[in-house]
């Protein structure tokens, strides 16, 4: 069995290494900021592309900073770190699935992550997406290995959860999911206390940095208020604000477009809360729209990693993908769509088999993530922390389907053998 999972891990590494070698993409969109902020912190001790900032959460830039401190500003090495994250996510999905399911399910779930198109496309993007893909399954595996955890594991888990929160604030739902596991397993919430305290201490350290250096009470990032406002205003559609359709002579929209990051943060929360007070049912009414934006596609890596991204040099593979963009995008989407359908079937199968305790914490993650995004804007790449969980449930359905096919085939062989013997007699 070790050979099989080793082969899957080698496949995951090989596909990602080939990708970043053959597609020398420059950074595009948010990853430009992450890369610049990480290098500025490594070179000058300043978090932000030029001046001190807190626009984006620091979890992923801190990883890049550690790399750039030793190797200089080398984006390719940053991409290699993403390869490691992709392989680690593949391995942790296997470990998490193997805790409660068969070896076959664990192997298939790891394989699904290893060959997942959007995860491979995202490897060349120096953004925060891949870190929580690994972090979610790593934290759940570490926390669910035993009903009771030791202090060293609790501290390590708290550090990991805190780091994930600093990468993607939605990662706070990991604390709730693990608390549910411990309650179902031991009828006690004591294990969650040290984990939550360590995570809070880590996040609090960054909050203190923001107050001391920026003189602002910013919990994690200033884009929090802006993103909160984007989905809680009268022209909200659940995604990014389309500035061409809003009244720019309105002081609210003028402020949110032209204000600095600190103004956008504080005013965003103020405007958003006022809107919710006037429209308390707005989050519920936006649920269908949020579900659409979160889960309708899985092509962020395709667009930001190759299709729309500039290249450092010639890339025949990138040229081929652009020339056949509709087919490649369709294949990317169909893979994701198939996994979603299979995951739904896997959840049903798990329910039918007796609703085991492990099911509820894993199932709570998509529910909690969706609830979080009722109050913040949604994009398709924001579902990526759930990719490992989706793969596990999809693997349950695939293995069950394989067993069913084998059973039908064996019955046909037996019937055929019986008929053959009957004719001989």
How would you explain this protein's 3D organization?
The mean pLDDT is 93. 72% of the residues lie in helices and 0% in strands. The protein has one domain (2-424). It is globular. Helix 4 (75-100) packs parallel to helix 7 (130-144), helix 5 (103-114) packs across helix 20 (387-424) and helix 7 packs antiparallel against helix 8 (151-167). The two termini are 44 Å apart. It is an all-alpha fold and 425 residues long. It contains 20 helices and no strands. It has helices spanning 2-22, 30-44, 59-71, 75-100, 103-114, 117-121, 130-144, 151-167, 173-186, 192-214, 223-231, 251-258, 261-278, 282-285, 287-295, 300-307, 316-323, 325-352, 359-372, 387-424.
Order of helices and strands: HHHHHHHHHHHHHHHHHHHH
Major pleated sheet? none
The 3D shape can be described as globular
Portion in strands: under 5%
Give the count of structural domains: 1
Name the average pLDDT. 93
Structural class: mainly alpha
Low-confidence stretches: none
């Amino acid at each position: 069995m070790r050979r099989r999972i080793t082969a899957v891990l080698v496949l995951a590494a090989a596909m990602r290494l080939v990708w970043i070698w053959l597609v020398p993409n420059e950074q595009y969109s948010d990853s430009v900021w992450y890369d610049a902020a990480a290098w500025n912190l490594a070179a000058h001790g300043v978090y932000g592309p030029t001046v001190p900032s807190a626009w984006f959460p620091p979890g992923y830039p801190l990883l890049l900073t550690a790399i750039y401190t030793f190797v200089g500003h080398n984006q390719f090495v940053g991409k290699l770190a993403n390869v490691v994250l992709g392989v680690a996510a593949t391995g942790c999905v296997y470990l998490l699935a193997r805790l409660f399911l068969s070896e076959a399910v664990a192997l298939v779930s790891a394989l699904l992550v290893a060959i997942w198109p959007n995860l491979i496309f995202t490897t060349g993007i120096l953004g925060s997406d891949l870190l929580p893909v690994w972090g979610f399954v790593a934290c759940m595996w570490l926390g669910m290995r035993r009903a009771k955890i030791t202090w060293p594991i609790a501290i390590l888990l708290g550090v990991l959860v805190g780091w994930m929160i600093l990468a993607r604030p939605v990662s706070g739902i990991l604390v709730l999911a693990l608390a549910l596991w411990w309650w179902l397993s031991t009828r006690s919430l004591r294990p969650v206390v040290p984990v939550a305290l360590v995570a809070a201490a880590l996040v609090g350290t960054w909050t203190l940095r923001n107050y001391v250096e920026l003189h602002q009470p910013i919990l994690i990032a200033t884009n929090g208020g802006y993103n909160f406002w984007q989905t809680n205003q009268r022209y909200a559609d659940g995604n990014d604000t389309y500035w061409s359709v809003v009244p720019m002579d309105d002081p609210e929209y003028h402020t949110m477009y032209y204000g600095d990051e600190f103004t956008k943060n504080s005013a965003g929360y103020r405007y958003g809360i006022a809107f919710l007070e006037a429209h308390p049912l707005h989050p519920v009414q936006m649920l269908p729209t949020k579900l659409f934006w979160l889960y309708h596609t899985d092509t962020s890596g395709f667009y930001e990693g190759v299709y729309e991204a500039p290249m450092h040099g010639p890339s025949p593979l990138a040229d081929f993908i652009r020339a056949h963009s509709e087919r490649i995008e369709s294949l990317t989407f169909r893979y994701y769509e198939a996994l979603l359908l299979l995951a739904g079937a896997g959840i049903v199968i798990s329910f039918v088999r007796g609703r085991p305790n492990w099911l509820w914490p894993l199932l709570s993650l998509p529910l909690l993530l969706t609830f979080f995004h009722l109050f913040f804007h949604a994009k398709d790449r924001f579902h990526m922390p759930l990719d490992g969980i989706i793969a596990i449930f999809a693997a349950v359905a695939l293995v069950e389907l394989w067993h069913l096919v084998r059973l039908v085939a064996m019955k046909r062989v037996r019937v055929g053998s019986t008929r053959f013997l009957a004719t001989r007699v």
